[in-house]
Amino acid sequence: MDYEEMKRELSRRLKKSRYEHSLGVADTSAFLARRFGEDEARARLAGLLHDCAREFPNEAMRAEADARGIKYGAVEESMPLLLHAPLGASVARERYGADDEGVLRAIARHTVGGASMTALDKIVYFADMVEPTRDYPGVEELRRLAREASLDEMTLAGLTRSIAFVLEKGHLIHPDTVLARNELLLAGKSFRGASGEAR
User: Fold this and answer.
1) Which of 39, 121, 136, 186 could form a disulfide with 117 if both were Cys (CB 3.0 to 4.6 A apart)?
2) Full-prediction pTM beyond 0.85?
3) What are the structural domains of the chain?
4) How far apart, in Å, do the first and last CA atoms of the chain sit?
């Protein structure tokens, strides 16, 4: 499939609001890729397909993951919606013909992040948070970071916001999100003040 064919197929399989969100993530990913010197076409593709597995109802996520041999832990067992990210990587390959491993990895990590995130991983993760249809307290500040901050500063803010949101809701925090945030803090001396506290 070429990109336009993927868009048509996706529009048939997702509800209208989810499809419009996917277009927004595609455009925002391309913008961030351009800003940070990454490949725009790869970012746009990952953004377009990042939610392709949302065609499945929440209660079917575990069965769909099991059918594809996708391993998951107790957090996904409790919150199966999280499986749409790794499941999406499989669906992007099997249904849409995506075969770029970096693109598939970014799709798989767009919800909770993970260790050693690539620039593309970070771009799609953050684009999902700030694309134009998103509307929640604090989104405008994150959008400002998308325009002004470094890639790692931006991603760190997104991971921090995600953890705070999950804490507010009283849900489980995925260990990959904590790992991704800790890696950025440990690697980024520019994020620390003189006292060693994260800013």
Assistant:
1) 121
2) yes
3) 3-136 (1.10.3210.10)
4) 45
Instruction: With cut-offs at 50, 70 and 90, classify the pLDDT of residue 199.
Output: very low
- For the cut 60, the answer to whether the pLDDT of residue 15 exceeds it is yes
Rounded Cα distance between 130 and 144, Å, is 10
Alpha-carbon distance of 13 to 37, in angstroms, equals 32
Residues 191 and 156: beta-carbon distance below 8 Å? yes
Tokens standing for residue 61: 């996520």
| pLDDT in the model for residue 188 | 81
Q: Which of 107, 110, 91 is nearest to 53 (CA)?
A: 91
Kindly state the tokens that stand for 24.
């927004």
CB 14 within 8 A of CB 51: yes
Nearest to 42 by CA among 97, 90, 128, 102: 102
DSSP the chain: --HHHHHHHHHHHS-HHHHHHHHHHHHHHHHHHHHTT--HHHHHHHHHHTTGGGGS-GGGHHHHHHHTT----HHHHH-GGGGHHHHHHHHHHHHH----HHHHHHHHTTTT--TT--HHHHHHHHHHHHSTT---TTHHHHHHHHHHS-HHHHHHHHHHHHHHHHHHHTPPPPHHHHHHHHHHHHH-GGGB-TTS-B-
Q: Compute the Cα dihedral for 111, 23, 46, 130 and give only its sign.
A: negative
Q: Could you tell me the two tokens for 58?
A: 């929440």
Look at residue 79 and tell me whether its pLDDT is greater than 90: yes
